[in-house]
Amino acid sequence: MKEKFAVDGAPCMCNFGTAPARMKVTDQKFAHINGKSLAGTSMNLGNVFYPPAFAVCRASWPPKTCVPNVVMWSDTFTKAKVNRIATLLTDQSKATCVMGGMDCIRFISHGQIPMPVTMKQSPLLKQIDPTGEKLFNGQPLDCLKKVTVEET
Q1: 15 phi and psi angles, rounded to 5 deg
Q2: Distance CA 45, CA 49 (A)
């Protein structure tokens, strides 16, 4: 299965949470996937989920309201860098939370809304995306010179 980039609003689950949460991109405002969704990056740290996060955290005793604190992401897409530092998150990326430990948070879905096939093949695509940004893993990444591509 081909990896997809995770975007703002992508649903996640924590091994110690009692409900899913949606990721909130807080570290950048310019790199978008498929036109309007902010791309998640490895620098998206701290409490990066829309409230109520994962509802109740069972990693502590007694269980209490979840206040996630992401300190690291693993399994990121390293061929593109945002601001020369951050790598892109994919649906296979995992987060380490201070409370839950290593790789305790995973994506349920990448959060992207697919474009209709007719739009992808349309000759009007150049008018929709006049910058002609490169495709990474078959997905357009819209930004203006803030993303660098590393050849492998």
Answers
A1: -60, -25
A2: 10
Q: Which residues contact 31 (CB under 8 A, 6 or more apart)?
A: 38, 39, 41, 82, 141, 142, 143, 146, 147
Structure tokens at 45: 């740290």
Q: What is the pLDDT of residues 59-107, one digit of tens each?
A: 989 999 999 999 999 999 998 888 889 999 999 999 999 999 999 999 9
User: How far apart (Å, rounded) are the C-alpha atoms in residues 79 and 58?
Assistant: 36
User: Does residue 130 carry a pLDDT above 50?
Assistant: no
Which residues, at least 6 apart from 55, have a Cβ–Cβ distance to it below 8 Å?
17, 18, 19, 65, 66
Instruction: List all residues 6 or more positions away from 34 whose beta carbon is below 8 Å from its beta carbon.
Output: 7, 112, 113, 115, 139, 140, 142
| pTM for the full predicted model | 0.78
Q: What share of the chain is helix, strand, coil (3-state, %, to 5)?
A: 5, 35, 60
For residues 102-140, one letter each, b for 16 or more C-beta atoms within 10 angstroms of the residue's C-beta and e for the rest, the string is: ebbbebeebbbeeeeeeeeeeeeeeeeeeeebeebeebb
What pLDDT score was predicted for residue 67?
A: 95
